[in-house]
Each structure stands twice: as structure tokens, then as C-alpha cells.
Known about the structure:
Blueprint: H1 2-24, H2 34-45, H3 57-72, E1 76-77, E2 83-85, E3 94-100, E4 111-117, E5 123-128, E6 131-133, H4 137-157, E7 163-169, H5 177-188, E8 193-199, E9 212-214, H6 222-230, E10 235-236, H7 239-244, H8 252-259, E11 263-267, H9 289-308
Helix pairs in contact: 2-4, 3-4, 4-9, 5-8, 6-9
The chain binds zinc ion.
Amino acid sequence: MKKILYVFLLALLSINSAFAQKRKKTDALYKVHEKSVITTLKFLTSDELKGRNAGTKEAEIAAKYLEDIFVKNGIKPYFISYNDTLTNFTPTTYNVVGYLEGTDAELKKEFVVIGAHYDHIGTTDKPVDGDYIYNGADDNATGTTTVAELVNYYGKMKSNKRSILFCFFSAEEEGLYGSKHLAKKLKDQNFNIYCMLNFEMTGVQLGGDLLAFITGYGRSNMADKFNEYAGKRIIGSNAFEMQYQLFRASDNYPFFLEFNIPSHTLSTTEMSTFKFYHKLDDEFDQMDTTHMTAFIQQMIPVVEKMVNAPTQEIVLKK
Ligand SMILES: [Zn+2]
């Protein structure tokens, strides 16, 4: 009898410690490493990539680098390959699309789309002080790096009940061609989407009391929900964004148009004072990688709650 009790207690103990192990793997204890942020950002903004202009071989090198991040993290292609060739743009260029199936039998039928464009505007034949490369650090190597870190997170944790489609878009700069192509293709396939979250220009601290602003603030309750998920107010609106309707200026917009779902972009750069937008000086050394790391770290528990919410809590406002 005693021996049985002892065995029973031992079993209980080991179950307990298994739970403790599992708990240890939660988002709160996951650490985003600035070194990793720097590595990705440095690669994408290097002169060798010549400003990642859609359709160039340098943009293709960037695409291959992002594909490798998927492979390393066990993120599968959603289509036949990771390369989703644009049918609305020449020369040939690709979105890079990865798929992580959800863990919940029901919720995995719904997708959250997480994206950022990796292309930029290339080079100029009018160099300034010998510099002719638009490295596109803030726009949008930073958003791309943010999504790459979320890929690293979900690759390790696989903690998403809903399925996630990770999208690195191309030809955004020429007119949102990558996201227009993909949103339409998915719509034609009856893709079951819950919401879309896009990242643009996250390399500079916003200042004030907000961590980031959302485009199209009033169109859904996404910002409200994100603040609730974060346990404090970190996301809000932005006057410049509202004046210039940035909601329509990035890859969230085609998803909103095709699916009529909450679809927004998060950004941390105050556009009214940022001097380097589409300038040769939008370079790696202007970026605040400590801020970026902290931003991604704070986004992780928010994204977790979005992909795991038992019902569709984020909804359009009337
Ligand atoms: Zn951009």
C-alpha cells in the first residue's frame, strides 16, 4: 500500500513538473534577442541588396533569406512553394508566404494573416555624396524584421490555436501589387480569414505615451482589443496617419477590400517628423534596434491573444 502511494506521488510529481515545463514555454518568458533583430535588419539593408527593388536579383536574394527563416522554423509553404509569383506585375517577383497550422481542431480552420513588405525602391542614378542606394531600413526592413521575429517565436512555441499565414509582400512600393495579388488569390480560394495585421516602419520610437499607432484606427476595435490584451494602452491613432489616410497606403488595404475584415498596419515612426522617408539616408544606423526589440517583445503577448481568442473578438466598427 505504502509503495503504491509512493509510486502514485512520484507520478503526480512528474506530471506537475511536466506542467511547469510547459508553463515555462509561455510568451511572458520568451525573450526577443536584439542580436537576432540586428542580424536580419543588417542583411536586408546591406548595400549588396541594392534597395530590394521588386523584380531585381537582389530582391530575390532577400526573398530567399526570408524563405530560409521559414525553413529554419518549420513554417511550411501555403502554396506549392514559398514563392507566390505575382500575376499582376512585371518583371517577375514573389511574395514569400509561410503557413503554420493551428493547434485547435476548430479554430485552426480560421487564419490570422501577419505581413510586411520586403521590397523597397532600389537605386538612383543621381547619387548624393556617392550614395546611390535606397537601403529602405525603416521602410520596410524593420516591418519585415518584426514579422521574421514573430516567425522565430511561433517556430519555437507553436502556440497558435488559429492557423497563421506569414506573408512577406513584394512590389508594395509600386502600388501594393503583392498584397493585391495575394488577397485576390486567397479570396478566389475561399480563404477563411479572421483578421490581418501588417507592420510598416517600426524602427524609430514614436515618442509620447504610445508604443505604436494603428492605421484606420476607427474602422475596427483592433486597437482597443490590443490594448486590452496588453493590459495597458500601447496602441492609438495618429494625426498624420488620419490626414493622409495611410490605411489605404499599405498591404493591409487589399485584404480589407477583398474580405471586409479588420485589417490594419502598425507603425512606430512619426511620419510628420521622420526625415528619411524614401530618402537615401533611410539606413541601418538610423534605426533604434533596442526600441525594435522592445516593440516586438511587447507585441508577442498581444498577437498570442489575438490568434488564440476563443471567438472573433476583433470586429469592424459600423
Ligand atoms: Zn513601406
